């Protein structure tokens, strides 16, 4: 068995797991943005027929999970584990939204980087042959996030230009064991699964991951999370280059989660100081998801931001063949009501996932 560790923080999977199913569920504002046509399900009612914002977010996850399982051609009983998280206290959206599926759960919290963390853990489980299929999922909701982290909606506060708009949405992915021919796989075994192997052509595999570290530059402005998270994104991107021995040109796109317009400039400058120029390949989900006329200040944010852009747009672009290799880097600001009110800074974290189209 090959040694899977790469460099200081990365893993290169011996038999890369395959994304066999995905689903994106978004709210009305997200559907009105430039990528609205790519999302699978659009919820016109921001409460999704529920009584509270938190219940609405839980419903987002339930809907996305069921749609992703269906898109993979599987049944709920085929999923061995779920790796899920959200922004709410005690992972409310995940625990309430996914409980009826009755699938064993790993609850994780990486703030807005949770999609990257969930994918990384799911991929290790599958590559380690502990499961055939794992569901990775996360969500956010504008109103539930404002209620928990900022101000009640009725307060009507003004938002600074550096602030971001929490995406209402959920993204779900089915990570499955690949059956494509390995270097030492017996021909008889390959023949047995050849139909499924052919079906993997054109899908996206998770080639590797680079797990991020907590990075704290002392920023205390919770309304400028791009500045809090950009150094963490920069460090994990540079570490990915070092661990895998590659340059930015190795990737067709390097895509962060929700740095926004402020964080974008900080990130590009940060990476340049380390000897790399990523500006040509760079894209940020938070900048892209809303249009200029949608009054989203610096852009979108929240766990759902990168999750729905990945499941709704990025994977579709890769499956079409427009992009062959993408470094997906969701970003998170590790603050809470308690830490902020006690005057603490806002640490950042980011996790990088190497996505590659199967040819």
Please supply descriptive tags for the structure shown above.
single chain; alpha/beta; Peroxisomal Thiolase, Chain A, domain 1; 2 domains; 13-stranded mixed sheet; two-stranded parallel sheet; 12 helices; 17 strands; 35% helix; globular
General description of the model:
- This protein has 359 residues and is an alpha/beta fold.
- It has twelve helices and 17 strands.
- Strands 1, 2, 3, 4, 5, 6, 7, 9, 10, 11, 12, 14 and 17 form a 13-stranded mixed sheet that branches. It has a two-stranded parallel sheet with strand order 8-13.
- The mean pLDDT is 91.
Give helix and strand order, one letter per element, not per position: EEEHEHEHEHEHEEHHEHEHEHEHEEHEE
Helix percent reads 25-40%
- Rounded mean pLDDT is 91
Largest sheet: 13 strands, mixed
> At the third CATH level, what is the topology name of the largest domain?
Peroxisomal Thiolase, Chain A, domain 1
Estimated radius of gyration: 19 Å
Q: In one word, what is the shape?
A: globular
